[in-house]
Amino acid sequence: MADLLAAHRHTTNNRAEVEARKVCGCIYCTASFSPMEIVAWSGLDVSSFDDPDSANAGTALCPRCGSEAVIGDKSGYTINQGFLNRMNEAWCERTIVRRPSPKK
Ligand SMILES: [Zn+2]
Question: Cα(65) to centroid of ligand 1, in Å?
Answer without folding.
Answer: 4
